[in-house]
Amino acid sequence: VGDSSVLPCPLKQSIIMVTWKIIPKTGAPCTLGYRLDTNTTNRTTCSENMNWKSRPDLDASLEMWHVGIAQEGNYTCEVVTADGNFDKKYYLTVLVPPRPSLYCDDHGSPVCEAAAGKPAARVWWLLESNSTPEKEGHDNGTVTVLSRFTACSTNVMNTTCMVFHLTGNWSQSIPC
């Protein structure tokens, strides 16, 4: 989320036309087209944060800026040449880093939360715990994971929560 992305489209010799067909998981499909004979480009219902990386006759790659969850979906580049039609397919998955936090609840127990990540983060305690993480899915496809530390012994003074995610890992300790 928030990064730029480039999807390459391999060009062949003697191109006639290049088309990007985009079918997002949510929202309307969009197309970007280029015709060599008229040297024209055309776009249909594509968001303003995507376009050809450069001139489509030189580089037919698709560039996207500030990628969001709405851009997740199927992307197909179709190249029409005198030798036939060729396509390159992608499925764009958007990763959302969770917002980790560690705090003490009203009962003095540590609570570790990884809010609104995609996919769901994994939450672990450094010390042995009987806790089972709770997951809450959100409408935008993100997931919040919450874990309350339940000590296996009464001698625990300080504990560390670790959050593992494809976008990066995080750890913090807290005395409750």
UniProtKB/TrEMBL annotation:
GO molecular function: signaling receptor activity
Subcellular location: Membrane
Record-linked InterPro entries: CD200R, Ig-like_dom, Ig-like_dom_sf, Ig-like_fold, Ig_V-set
Protein name in the entry: MOR1B protein
Keyword flag Glycoprotein: yes
Membrane topology: Single-pass membrane protein
Record carries keyword DNA damage: no
GO cellular component: external side of plasma membrane
UniProt record similarity statement: Belongs to the CD200R family.
GO BP terms, alphabetized: regulation of neuroinflammatory response
Residue span(s) of domain Ig-like: 1-93
SUPFAM superfamilies: Immunoglobulin (SSF48726)
Principal subcellular localisation of the protein: membrane
UniProtKB keywords: Disulfide bond, Glycoprotein, Membrane, Transmembrane, Transmembrane helix
Gene3D superfamilies linked: Immunoglobulins (2.60.40.10)
Gene that specifies this protein: Cd200r1b_0
